[in-house]
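Quick illustration, no need to memorize.
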Amino acid sequence: MIVGAGPRATGLLERIAASASELWPPERRLLVHLVDPHPPGPGRIWRHEQSPLLRMNSMAEDVTLFTDESCAVEGPVRPGPSLAEWAARFAGPGAPRDAPYTEPADPEVLAELRTLAGTDFPTRRAQSAYLDWVFRRVTAELPPRITLVRHRTTATAVTGPPDGPQRVRLAGREHPVTADLVVLAQGHLGSAPAGEHRDHAAFARRHGRFHLAPDFSADADLSGLRPGSRVILRGFGLAFVDLMTLLTEGRGGTYRTEPDGTLRYLPSGREPVLHVGSRRGVPYHAKTHYRLGGPRPPLPRHFGPAAVDALLARDRPPELRRDVWPLMAKEIGFGHYHELFHAHPERTALPWPEFLAAYDRLDWYDPDLAALVAAAVPDPADRLDFEALDRPLAGLAFATPDAFQDHLRAHIAGDVARREDPAHSADLGAFLALLSVYGQLPRLLDPGRPAAGALAEGLDGWWHGFFSFLASGPPGFRLRQLLALSRAGIVHFLGADLRIGTDEPTGTFTASSPTVPGHTVHATALIEAYLPGPDLDRTRDPLLRRLRRAGGLTEEVVDGASRPHRSGRIAVDPADGRLIDPTLRGPHPRRFALGAPTNSRAVAAFARPGTDAPAFRQNDAVARTVLRTLAAGRAPEPFAGRGAGAAGAGQKSAGWWSGAGAGVSPGAKTETVPKTPS
């Protein structure tokens, strides 16, 4: 059974289909239950039923759910189209209309797909259509001996001995479903509010104000925000951008391009007034909107498996700043300078082979490396300065809020211009190296290594935030909209190191920042404009809550020199995704978990083509372990007489089912996914 039917579950099914011919006995049948109340393929996060204004922060050509020649997977590589390649099938009146490319039902989505360029940032509804098609293709390509049964409900509990069948309870069903193995792939999960958020929610209730704890923007109820009311938003990343869109365009505002090219916002009068700040005080960097000008950098070079092996072989655990960051920084620098030297050699003063030989030899913090870069790259704007990137407002203070608004508008405009100008394509080289670095990190976090907690805390904290700030920002047009909203007085910038408080006499939330000393904003609403992180203690998922209470899973806790680091993530065996069961003191033989809530820390369920995505490697490892485990089990009993209900209709003479009691409870309402493209 697979709990969850979003992109991660789809990727797992694709890998099961890919390896079935090698690992699954041809005389046996396999019944796969798929449990999710949301549409299979898109799941909850990417479902079609969300605002058409919301978009991806990836270009269409950078999104795929299919393995390619870059993927270091044990199973067969089975290429497929990226979102851009899939959308191209609908372009123009003469485009092919073969069955696997059946047109989406939504005419607006179809119109978007017909004009979608590879460098466009698609709507989330377009991505939903792509994920729906990928799911249908994957299920159509399942071997005939594998049957898929969907349950449009929520899994609420799983029980069963480690050496016997697992019983999974489903919401609204009297009888549980019995399965030999269970894979948890619920994706991003909500969390109950933490202490500070509970206090702020209580303050809001007491004074009749509005408070929103971290939430997924498409699910947030914003109806309580009145036109013209002041709203403080803590967070300047993608969640803020979504909320900004929903509270402006989503309330009837429009944008107009002036003759001089400036974007102007025309309010509807229904917008609240947004005051935004964060730790850095600036929005995430815009996504690059160009391609490499030179050859793709050969990654990894300085922070690959060999470098990780060397770090793990040391007697003392590696420290982030002392041991790991210098290698990460050097890898990112390699990607940056590889593109600069190959695409813009006129802005360099040394031949690439000479620069690379010296760069490879020198440590990141060696003064000779800084001297090498200064000599080889004359313009400081072409050099990497991580400290300036990380804290762009450090040491700055402004006498008035208006002075800061002017400064930040100039900063944002400069960032958008740079990310849309191919002359700065070295930034894309650095971005690709960032992705490569992220994929190497999970192996460093061995919970059993003494004092590894400080490294885990740094990676989950500073590093993840820095990565997101540089690599997971919005499309440039969103930041141009932000500038227009700022000029229109709809958005105001608060500054860095944001401090949030409450004022009982006025019943208002307060916000202040050392960026504008002495300036405090009072507001009737507070929004935590960031997504909920993994937190096993506060998860809203009923199955995980019950497993946690029953001692059936454990939170990742990494030993620390002074204190352990609790990540909030589900501990799994990194080799094959098996749940770490504290009662067994090791991996559970019949339960797996993969994706966002786990300590595997895979970046995303889908990825850029050609990047050997960690999620694809994980999907492949879990799929092959599942197939091997089931195939090595005892010979199952004949299917006849099992009472399999809807799942077994017409299948009694079809062969053998995997494991004991794998059928559906009598009377269950299920849907068997067809084996032909639809």
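The longest helix spans residues 320-343.
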